[in-house]
Amino acid sequence: MNDECYECGHELELRSGYKLDDSNIGLIETDGEYWHCPNCGADEVPYETMCKVDDVRKQRIQELLWADIRSGNDFDRKFMPVHELAELLGVTRQAIDKSRTIGNLIYHTTVMGIRYWMRESAEKFKATGDGRIPLGGASAIAKEATRSSQRRTRTKNNHATHVLLPGD
């Protein structure tokens, strides 16, 4: 491989077993390959590996959303149906269904074909425009590690990998 680091020009090493600290859900690990610079620590992450990271992230979010649900009452306190979300945000249900932003920035789960939205996430979205919150075990250290890692991360074809961060 003649690929050089975009940060320092050092030759990159192929590695497998990519790890990413997500400030909201904790450590994400995949078996995907990536290129690493031993000199400055920058990573080049191929699209395929980032897809694996996204799959693990989605699965982990679902697990964490359900982790403390013990009864129907717990579910009703934690989640709301789409008509309540529409009322909270002041938009139509159709606007919610069509909005990729809302779907990506407010945590939700699907039960028997019906999507339910996490109340706390929806309220944060209304206040800040980003409803992602720490879900079990995410720490300030992981948050900073994620920001640092994502600043250094790019795809193999030299295009920046855009991953929204808290505060974006």
Secondary-structure map:
Blueprint: E1 13-16, E2 19-22, E3 26-29, E4 33-36, E5 43-44, H1 47-66, H2 72-78, E6 79-81, H3 82-89, H4 93-98, H5 100-105, E7 108-111, E8 114-118, H6 119-128, H7 140-152, E9 153-154
Parallel strand pairs: 5-9
Antiparallel strand pairs: 1-4, 2-3, 4-5, 6-8, 7-8
Strand order of the largest sheet: 1-4-5-9
| Structure summary, number of beta strands | 9
Whole-number average pLDDT? 83
- First CA to last CA: what distance? 35 Å
Which range best describes the helical content: under 10%, 10-25%, 25-40%, 40-55%, 55-70% or over 70%? 40-55%
Radius of gyration, in angstroms, nearest whole number: 18 Å
Report on the biggest sheet.
4 strands, mixed
Structural class estimated from helices and strands = alpha+beta
Low-pLDDT stretches? 137-168
Strand content range: 15-25%
* Number of helices, where a helix is a run of at least 4 consecutive DSSP H or I residues: 7
The coarse silhouette is elongated
Report the order of strands and helices: EEEEEHHEHHHEEHHE
